[in-house]
Design a protein that fits this description.
five-stranded mixed beta sheet; 6% strand; elongated; phosphatase activity; diphosphoinositol-polyphosphate diphosphatase; EC 3.6.1.52; inositol diphosphate tetrakisphosphate diphosphatase activity
């Protein structure tokens, strides 16, 4: 008997873990079949049930949650058809709850995939997307003659003659050369620089520095500290200024570099992270903030002090 109980327990556990939805559907099917037989069952009286257990009553007893025989009529007795209808409604609710739960899980997975795709778009430079945005800008402009100079997206002054932005496009060239009068551009992406940008820089006498790096992302993609130090050495050197720092969207890799500049300015981590999150919104990365906090600035500090680059002047 004990072995039988153990086997029954194992079977129940396997059914529960294996296919709960299939079990719910089976129960639902059984109850629907039973309710269709309801009219015949309701004609049975207590005497018939006590003296002769019908196949239908055995069926009811098998699926009844209480395991009780069919009883009808009289005070204090349970109307099994009402009980079965209640059980039917309960099974329906369970079934639909499982559907909703499964649907919610699938939606969450799809949402995570979309977020990952968006993250990749932030990190990876796509030339067609870059040129497409410029094309749309001029199409929207139409025949309008706009004389104002347009800064790149996510543009901001950092300190002194150091600036930050997203990837500059054709419509931003006048701003870079006439307003900022750039000497250099530091790009933090590993992809090849666009021909249009290279031609513009050649004509304007702007020097290009490229320190290609991947963004900080789970599980094993991290910005190498030595690359960050190399980039800081380029940025802090006055002979390269005015200089513009950019990656693809000007959020994550650029944000890490700026955060490390703020450490050289002795900003508190609270202030550094607040600035990082404002530019990275709505996709601030915990790994970026961890990188900024853990970055060892000893080497770049020594280089900067030897060359009298510090303190940085506003």
């Amino acid at each position: 008997m004990q072995n039988d109980n153990i086997e029954d327990s194992d079977t129940i556990r396997e059914d529960s873990n294996g296919s709960r939805i299939d079990e719910i559907i089976k129960r639902e099917s059984d109850i629907i079949q039973l309710i269709r037989q309801g009219d015949d069952l309701m004609t049975l009286n207590e005497g018939e049930l006590n003296n002769d257990i019908t196949p239908d009553s055995k069926f009811l007893n098998h699926i009844s949650p209480l395991g009780s025989p069919l009883r009808h009529g009289g005070n204090g007795t349970v109307n099994d058809m009402d009980l079965l209808r209640d059980k039917f409604d309960d099974v329906i609710r369970q079934f639909h709850n499982e559907e909703i739960k499964q649907s919610g899980t699938e939606s969450k997975i799809q949402e995570e995939h979309m977020m990952d795709a968006d993250e990749d778009l932030d990190d990876k430079f796509v030339l067609d997307d870059h040129l497409g945005k410029s094309k749309k800008f001029y199409e929207d402009l139409g025949s309008k003659n706009v004389k104002e100079m347009i800064p790149p997206e996510n543009f901001s002054h950092v300190v002194g003659e150091i600036y930050r932005s997203s990837f500059p496009r054709i419509e931003n060239f006048d701003f870079l050369v006439k307003r900022l009068q750039l000497k250099s551009i530091l790009v933090l992406i590993p992809e090849e620089y666009p021909v249009e940008n290279l031609e513009f820089m050649k004509q304007s006498g702007i020097k290009l520095f490229q320190v290609g790096m991947s963004g900080n992302k789970e599980p094993f993609v991290n910005i190498p500290s030595d690359l960050l130090t190399k980039a800081l050495e380029i940025v802090l050197d006055p002979k390269n200024q005015p200089i513009l720092i950019h990656c693809n969207r000007g959020k994550h890799r650029t944000g890490c570099l700026i955060g490390c500049i703020r450490k050289l300015q002795n900003w508190s981590l609270t202030m550094i992270f607040d600035e990082y999150r404002r530019f990275a919104f709505p996709k601030a990365r915990a790994l970026d903030q961890q990188f900024i906090e853990m970055y060892d600035d000893t080497e770049i500090t020594n280089i900067a002090k030897e060359n009298s680059w510090l303190p940085l002047q506003w």
